[in-house]
Structures are given as C-alpha cells and as structure tokens.
Specification:
Blueprint (H helix, E strand, L loop, with lengths): L2 H13 L4 E2 H8 L3 H13 L3 E5 L7 E5 L5 H11 L3 H19 L4 E9 L8 E16 L5 E6 L3 E4 L6 E11 L3 E16 L2 E6 L4 E7 L8 E7 L2 E7 L2 E7 L2 E7 L3 H4 L8 E3 L2 H10 L3 E11 L2 E10 L5 E17 L14 E14 L5 E2 L14 E3 L4 E9 L11 E8 L3 E2 L1
Parallel strand pairs: 4-12, 10-14, 11-15
Antiparallel strand pairs: 1-3, 2-3, 4-8, 5-6, 5-7, 5-9, 8-16, 9-10, 9-11, 12-15, 13-14, 17-18, 18-23, 19-20, 19-22, 19-24, 20-21, 24-25
Helix pairs in contact: 1-3, 1-4, 2-3
Length: 423
C-alpha cells in the first residue's frame, strides 16, 4: 500500500469508533490540517466517509465512516503492514532522531496565553465565569510541520473583569520562531450572575476556539492575546429555557513585554492593562462590523425583526445567527392584596424573566426559527458579508411560535457569528 493509502487507513481506523473533526484527526495522527483535509476530501469522493454537522456549532464538521464501507482499506492496510513492520520501524526511528536533532536548534519559550474584553450579556450581569481544564495552541513549527502543544493549566476566569485589561490563563511551551495558528480552551463549566441570581450557562461543544491572525513569530517577549467576545442569551430547548454562550473571538501574537520572562507560579493569574501595541494588534484584525439600524415591532399577533448590518472592514465576515434577546415583562394582578400596595398602584405587580430566541441565517440571508434547536437549524449555512457591503436581515413570525416572547417585553437584536454585535 502507498504512503497515502496508509494514511487513509489510519484516518479510517480512528473514525470507525467515533465521529471526529478534522482538527481532532490531525492532532491524534500528528498530521497538518492541509494533509488531513486532502485525505478527507479523497475519502469522501471514494464514498468511504461522510461529513456530519455538529449539533451545536455549524462551523464544526465531523466525519464518520459510511455504513458498510471503509473496511476494505482498513483490512488491506492490516495485511500489508505485516510485511512492512521492519521498514516502518526503521523509518520511525529515523524520524524520531530527526525530530530530536531538529528540536535542539530551537528554544522552548514559556508563552503566556491571555484573555481580554467583556462579553455581551443581559442587563444586570455582574459576573460571567468560565472554568477550563486545559489550554492548547496549534503551532507552525520553525523547521516545518504543525502540531498541537497543550498546557494542563486549569482554572476559571470572570470575563466581566477584563475590560481594557487582560488576564493570563495559561503558559504554553512554544518553540522560538514558531507561528501560532489557533488557541483552544476545553471548558468544564460556566455560570452567570444576574441581579444577584446565579444561572448555569451552556458552552457549545465545551470548547472555546480562537483563530490567530497574522504571521508574527514567537520570541522571548511574545504572548498570545485572545479577544473573546461571546454573547450570552437564553434559548428554549425541549421546552426548557437555558442560558447559552455564543462564542466570538480573534487572537494575535503580541509583545507581552519584560513580564513574559518573569511569569512564575505566583504570577500565573497576573492581570494587566492593555498597552498600545496590544490594542493595535487586536484592532488590526478585529472585523469592523456595525449594526446600522435594527427594530422590533409587534402587530396583529406577530413580531417583526429587522437588522441592517454594514461591513466596513477589508475582508468578509461570517454571520450565522440573528437573535431576539431581552426581558419578558408581565404585569400581574395579585389576589387578596391590599389596594395600593402594588408597584403600579392597586394590586398589580411586575414579573420579569430573561428570554431570547435564535434565528438561523441561510446562504441568501433569510432567517428561520426552528423549535427544539438550541444553536442552529439543520439547513442553515450562514452568510458571508463581503467587505464594504451591507445586508438587511428580517423576519415576521407569529408570537405564539416563539417561546418566552410576549408583547411589551424589553428586547434588542443581536447579530452573531464570527463577530457578535447588538443594538
């Protein structure tokens, strides 16, 4: 079997027991994203595997073996490998020796990973805390090749505490002159405190991913700054209202300064204000997406949602959801109360509850709401808003089909995807 055939067999062997993403396959097998992408494309064309959407985040694609296929390649590989154990043993030994020799040329730098910027949250929020079990960085090695480097650092961060400042959440040993392509946090829990009440928050996939922009190489003064800007809202799923975190993030390699060499265990949770270089680095890559106009109106038993979005940046920006978020307000007349004791006079009291619904965005910009779909509709594909262009998103939906939404509530429109904005 050819080298490419062996690689395909290894991929099939990995995904025969569970669905995996392209990044997970590359991490498990030590292959670059471009290599994995090419083999997955060829395997799909051969009819051996199929692509499956993640039930939470549309941009995450999983791969699995089609029923009754994939066995021939795996079986063929197993038979042929028996005659090549010696060859591969020698090759692997040479490869390891080469890696050891190559790695001696580079110095591992303990590089701080920091998070900045507060999220978009309901009014009255005082804390939004995310716990994590590990932090990983996907690295372009100076001698060629790519790999994940992980830090088993664990902890939690209150995202409401990093306005115009950053907090170090991990340190990762990254070889000098490497490029950082992606940062990943594996989350364990999240909760939000609103007006003194604590609520659990669902993080889709229990992961936070940030693509690193630019080609800045790591040196002794480098740090990786993640500009994490999620939106937290409520959504109904199987008849239950849940708080969910809808992520939006970018990252850049920045100059962390002299403190990058001084970070030690007692400074691990260090927090510092953003300097001009860090703000410039993040601002350079942050999309310039603006909500020019938005409106919500109720009429004849329906609710109309409208959002006019303009992309002032120099690249396209991906949009996959429009949300109606806010507070449902009801005035209730209580029985047996003393006249005049209610807030609005007489026996009328106000009931307020956090609510929200998510509309998925189709390829042509149409909006659709599906009940019992927590994060996105199965047929949604998102909309790429080109640089310098504008797009109006709108929908008219019967109020009765939107759980928790009532006439007279206090709502606003949020546009979500690669970069989250709200009116």
């Amino acid at each position: 079997m050819s080298k490419t055939g062996v690689t395909k067999a290894r991929i099939l062997e990995k995904i025969k027991s569970k669905n995996m993403t392209m990044s997970e396959i590359g991490e498990e097998l030590g292959l670059s994203p471009s290599t994995v992408c090419q083999h997955l494309k060829e395997l799909r064309n051969m009819g051996e595997i199929e692509e499956v959407e993640n039930p939470h985040i549309k941009k995450w694609k999983y791969y699995r073996i089609k029923d009754g296929t994939g066995r021939q390649i795996i079986a063929s590989d197993t038979m042929r490998l028996g005659n090549k154990h010696l060859y591969y043993g020698v090759a692997i030994a040479a490869l390891i020796a080469g890696i050891i020799l190559a790695n001696t040329q580079y110095v591992a730098i303990l590089t701080p990973i920091s998070i900045t910027d507060p999220p978009i949250v309901p009014s009255g929020t005082t804390s939004l805390t995310v716990g994590y079990s590990s932090v990983s960085a996907y690295i372009g090695m100076p001698g060629g090749g790519e790999r994940w480097i992980s830090s088993q650092s664990s902890g939690s961060i209150n995202l409401m505490s990093v306005l115009n400042s950053s907090q170090v959440i991990a340190r990762v040993n990254i070889p000098s002159n490497s490029s950082v392509k992606e940062v990943r946090l594996n989350t364990t829990h999240a909760y939000i405190v609103i007006n003194g009440t604590t609520y659990n928050v669902t993080v889709p996939g229990n992961k936070i991913l940030a693509q690193v922009s630019g080609n800045t190489l790591v040196n002794s003064s480098s740090g990786v700054l993640v500009d994490f800007m999620p939106t937290v809202t409520t959504a109904y799923y199987n008849g239950t209202s849940k708080f969910v975190m809808l992520p939006s993030s970018i990252a850049a390699v920045t100059r962390f300064g002299e403190r990058s060499r001084l970070i030690s265990e007692d400074m691990f949770w260090s927090r510092k204000g953003l300097d001009g270089a860090e703000m410039e680095a993040i601002g350079r890559y942050r999309p310039d997406l603006r909500l020019a106009n938005s409106s919500i109106s109720f009429k004849n038993g329906s609710v109309s949602i409208y959002a006019d979005v303009i992309n002032y940046g120099n690249r396209s920006v991906y949009i996959d959801r429009v949300a109606l978020v806010g507070v449902a307000v009801q005035r209730i007349r209580a029985e047996g109360c003393i006249s005049g004791s209610g807030r609005f006079g007489g026996c009328v009291f106000e009931s307020r509850s956090y609510t929200g619904v998510l509309f998925t965005v189709g390829q042509n910009g149409t909006l659709a709401y599906e009940s019992n779909t927590l994060f996105h509709a199965n047929n949604a594909s998102g909309y790429d808003l080109e640089a310098g262009k504008s797009k109006a998103f709108s929908a008219v939906v019967p109020i009765g089909t939107l759980p928790g939404i009532i006439t007279g509530g206090e709502y606003k429109v949020a546009v979500l995807g690669e970069y989250n904005i709200s009116g």
